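Support case: user asked for a sample of complex input and structure output to validate their parser. Sending the pair below.
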Amino acid sequence: MTLAVRVIPCLDVADGRVVKGVNFRDLRDAGDPVELARQYYLQGADELTFLDVKATVDNRSTMYDVVARTAENVFIPLTVGGGVRTVDDVGRLLASGADKVGVNSAAIARPELLSDISGRYGAQVLVLSLDITRSPSTRSGFVVTTHGGRQETTLDALEWAKRAIELGAGELLVNSIDADGTKDGFDLELVAAIRALSSVPVIASGGAGRVEDFAPAIAAGADAVLAASIFHSGEVLVSEVKTDLARHGYPVRTL
Amino acid sequence: MSRKTVVVFDYGTGNIHSAIKAVELAGATVELTRDKQKCAQADGLLVPGVGAFAAVMEALNAVDGGEIIDRRLAGSRPVLGICVGMQVMFENGVEGGVDTQGLGEWPGTVRKLNAPILPHMGWNNIDAPKDSVLFDGLHDERFYFVHSFAATDWTLDVMPPFPAPKVTWAEHGERFVAAVENGPLCATQFHPEKSGEAGIRFLKNWLATL
């Protein structure tokens, strides 16, 4: 008996609409996150992630509604990230139907936020989102960034990851800013470095361009793989990724 | 056949949206309430639970949860515990050095799993008895788990004429109890409401026993 590696499509959502090109042929409304989530569910996605890319106050309430409607007909775990700043934000997302909540910059500014959230709701709801780039400025050569990678912090990515786990993060979403958008595959060195220090599950993100890109991320130590555009473009189905992972001997959930 | 009624026990635990919708999809009429009479009268009572064992027990105790569950079981009225809603059916739970008394429906302790990576998060397969009613047709399916604590022993002996409990196991670092079918009291460590179509079928199997 073994735990299956998870394949997770990620949807960027703003004002209740999916942003970034979604190109499914059979969709009535390719911009509706609820319908798209349902499609991925039927394709065999193991989890779904919504990223609230705007996260303004108005947009927030729209997001709660999207989450609630999705949870009504998608029976897999749902993670929501983007703009989560307080324990109350987490409470509202969970009450709307999210199973896990992704926290990023707010935890950099105020690390106690992590212990506050896990103390209140448990580590299993708390995903620490890490946007990481390579930089000579830190000891490990990996630095944490904010603002979608445009702004470097002074935090060594590996030290921050370790501290976040101590504070109560239940999972790490490791997004390589360098690999993101390249379609050249995941940053395997980064995944391996995080795996080496992490006692919690690790999700590899950023860089997937082909079906063959996923198995190396698992080999590098990821427990799950996350991708957006490769799935949205319709180039690759979730089931095709799983077939390739299974071909490499990794356990996957099949429908 | 009229639709079965299920009450999802509303004692203030986390995400219950999907539990309600999943049980509805499985074919029941569902109500979210803590009303004692409604909890007693429904064909089935579903006890969800997320977060820390101690916090869930505190929330349950605040609304006489133990009494509501005990009364149902005394009258052979079905109860289904999910995740921490299963864990609290055991005698006690040990989390972070804190030992909390559970509802004590079953002997045994819930403690941290001995595994290199925790939480145990994701889709795992299960080892269900062949004659399991709840896993009928589902023995080869995976179910969604998210937890760090579990019961790793099952010690309850039941004497005839009562049927022996059916215990389903899973493994993450070590073997642990993934589900129990014990007369009117059933429970799962995994989340059927997050386990896709397999989870819905599991809930259908449970509804069929009500």
